[in-house]
Amino acid sequence: MMHIHFTKEEKKLMMDDLQYYYEVERGEELGYIAAEQILDFMLEKLAPTI
Length: 50
Description:
Strand content: under 5%
Oligomer: single chain
Radius of gyration: 12 Å
């Protein structure tokens, strides 16, 4: 299994993008912890299949 590693800055930018997406596309506020959990889930479950 391939592991993908990101710097803190890269991860923060991805979390910012998730929060922006939720706000603009769904009209929902996504907190920092929720954004981190969603990103971790995507990286763990989805990234290896790409």
